[in-house]
Design a protein that fits this description.
The chain has about 325 residues and is α+β, with helices and mostly antiparallel strands. The chain contains 8 helices and 11 strands.
């Protein structure tokens, strides 16, 4: 895997906010829904998801920056890749520019014809070193490939963080608990649910796609709803039943409420990463009766001769 910073297009000193912003931009651009006929975009989406998974984890990022793990999250070799020897004159560079080893460094074993290969096998766990001068080490065993999944989640389920059932490539079905802060483009990592490999199985990467709703809209962690009310309810005030992502609640409309007024229902939005929830913002929308209906005729009779002398457009200066 390429350097995760390069994959996301950020510097190594990037803040968490900059990393998240870069990932969200790429996720929207490369999301499988928008690139159904572009396999390269899907590959880049997967790479960006893996890069974000590593860099958004403070511990993994710190270990990667220190060179303890590679871009795939696998432990880095404790000896590096150059094979420069152990120092102390035993292996590597000898005085005078000669390379190799000296028999005195090995207690005379070389003179007696000892099989140094066996010693190297003990030192390196059964792997014979590639030459006495420290040749390039064989690559470490790799994990199996990750498997990509795409999970569509209903709007209400995403807001409630309801468990979602998904069928894996091996035919097994599991229930996923949506994480706090879940949103469209969130990628969930299922450890060990990928393809098998010499160093263990890869992971399953589940990309979340949150469906739209018929009348709710998401605004950050808040949920917005346009609520139709009658002229009578706006003038006299009323208590009306309002749907939320959890269940319907009673909402008090104050007398004299105007169209566009926003009322707030605490804790009825989407979850944040800290587990708290946003709010539901209800925008009042006064609906008049149909122009040719009996109700409109009756309303016209009631206000006949009355005129509102205020100027609601005064702020325009016209």
């Amino acid at each position: 895997m390429a350097d995760p910073y390069t994959t996301l297009g950020v510097s190594r000193s990037a803040t968490e906010k900059e990393i998240k912003s870069a990932y969200r931009k790429l996720a929207k651009e490369l999301h499988p829904d928008k690139n159904k006929d572009n396999p390269k975009a899907t590959e880049r989406f997967s790479a960006a998801s893996q890069a974000y998974d590593l860099l958004s984890d403070k511990d993994k990022r710190a270990r990667f920056d220190r060179g303890e793990i590679d871009a795939d999250g696998n432990p880095a070799s404790p000896f590096g890749g150059a094979g420069g020897g152990f120092g102390g004159g035993g292996f590597g560079q000898r005085p005078g520019g000669q390379s190799g080893f000296r028999s005195s460094d090995m207690g005379g074993f070389a003179q007696e014809g000892a099989d140094l290969g066996d010693i190297f096998e003990d030192l390196f766990g059964g792997r014979r070193a590639g030459g006495m001068g420290g040749g390039r080490r064989p690559p470490p065993p790799s994990k199996g490939a990750d498997i990509q999944y795409r999970l569509r989640v209903p709007f209400i389920d995403a807001a409630q963080r309801a468990d979602q059932r998904i069928t894996l490539s091996d035919g097994k079905t599991i229930d996923l608990k949506l994480p706090a802060g879940v949103e469209d483009g969130t990628v969930m990592r299922l450890k060990g649910k990928g393809q098998d490999g010499p160093a263990g199985a890869g992971d399953g990467l589940v990309a979340i796609a949150v469906d739209n709703h018929a009348y709710f809209r998401r605004d950050g962690h808040d949920v917005r709803l346009d609520l139709p009310i009658t002229l009578d309810e706006a003038i006299s005030g009323a208590k009306v039943k309002v749907p939320t992502v959890d269940a319907a609640v009673m909402l008090t409309i104050s007398p004299g409420s105007a169209s566009g007024k926003v009322l707030r229902l605490k804790g009825k939005g989407f979850s944040k990463k800290n587990g708290q929830r946003g709010d539901q913002l209800v925008t009042l929308e006064i609906i008049l009766p149909e122009a040719d209906s009996d109700d409109m005729v009756e309303l016209a009779k009631r206000i006949e001769g009355w005129k509102d002398e205020s100027n609601p457009r005064a702020k325009f200066g016209v």
